[in-house]
Amino acid sequence: MTTIPVRRPGSVHDLLARIGATAVEREEHDRPPYEEIALLKQAGIGALRLHGATLVELFETIIDLGQADPNVAHSLRNHYAFVENLLRRPRPQDEKWLDLVRAGNLFGLAATELGNEKAGRRDQIFRTAVTRTPDGLRLTGEKYYSTGNLYADFLVVAAQGPDGEPVRLVVPADRPGVLVERDWDGIGQRFTGSGTTRFDTVPVTEDDIVGTGTIYGDLPYLATFPQLYLTAVIAGILRRVARDAAGLVRGKRRTFYHAAADDPAGDPILQQSVGYLASTAYVAEAAVLRAAAALGEASAASDDQELALRAALRTAKAKVAVDEQALRAAAELFDVGGGSAVRRVAHLDRHWRNIRTLASHNPRTYKARAVGAYEISGTPLPNGGFF
Length: 387
Prior knowledge:
- The chain is α+β, with helices and mostly antiparallel strands.
- A hairpin with a 5-residue loop joins β4 (154-160) and β5.
- The protein has helices at 12-21, 23-29, 34-42, 55-68, 70-75, 77-88, 95-102, 224-251, 268-301, 305-337, 349-359, 364-377; strands spanning 107-110, 129-133, 136-143, 154-160, 166-172, 178-180, 197-204, 209-212.
- It has three domains: 12-106, Orthogonal Bundle (Butyryl-Coa Dehydrogenase, subunit A, domain 1); 108-212, Butyryl-CoA Dehydrogenase, subunit A, domain 2 (Beta Barrel); 224-377, Butyryl-CoA Dehydrogenase, subunit A, domain 3 (Up-down Bundle), CATH 1.20.140.10.
- It is globular, with a radius of gyration of 22 Å.
- The protein starts with 11 loop residues before the first helix and ends in a 10-residue tail after the last helix.
- A four-stranded mixed beta sheet has the order 1-4-5-8, covered by helices on one side. Strands 2-3-7-6 form a four-stranded antiparallel beta sheet, with no helix packed on it.
- 43% of the residues are buried.
């Protein structure tokens, strides 16, 4: 558990324990974590890197958040990615955005558009556009998969600029014409706000523009951070799976007549199952933190291609292995719990649904193929989004 300082009294551990204790209740009552994310904002959780946390420490915190509530953890992904992008290649003009982060604000992202374009390519052309009008610049368009925007104070928007070139700009989430809808209908990660964000002739100015070019810029393997983030959240879920499995065994009062022991807690079959789940969680966390260490070195070197490649490769390998083992572990949890584990009120199915949803962002089959091609013949890894 991390010990990174926050502004509010108490520790990160206490705050995450409070969030984790009410996760099932939110699932039961279909309640988005507005209150929980507000507490994290007040604690300064979004400015960890600005307070001196290393990337490894940040990913330790992400895993902790994933264990407490993967919806909350995933909702902060685009915020941390934006901050990391600013830190990786610092510019004086970006201090105003970092000052907003220091003040406790959270940033969301409006980048993805539906259509026939290949997802993740660097040279994207956006339908969302900034145009010049007699009343000034106006932003119009629709974005999808807007994870975290329900809880964000500012939105980072990828659009075509008034001169036809891609631009990135930041607009307040409450600016007139901005609409963040709660229309995400995924089987998991139900409270991440991963739905639609609409911009209806939103007034913007030149001061809102972060920079020109695509969302990934020209840095090598810039998408490694958000990809590793997803695996970190899954690692956190696996911790919760292991904890829930141990709790199910401890709470059992009866067993099968043909079980290996009369006492469930002393049953070697159940002990083995819980041991497997705990070991899977450990290996997932270790893989994430090893990749995070490589990513930290690459980020410090900014443009070093070899370090960036090493971080991307470790991140891809971690995803391929963790996704498969995590789905298996979330299913095996029900063998530990038996019939009582499938009761809807327990909401243990949320673990599998959340893992399946997170893993589907970028299917591991494509990752495994790219890793295999690299290992066999040195074929370069994809260097755009989603890798």
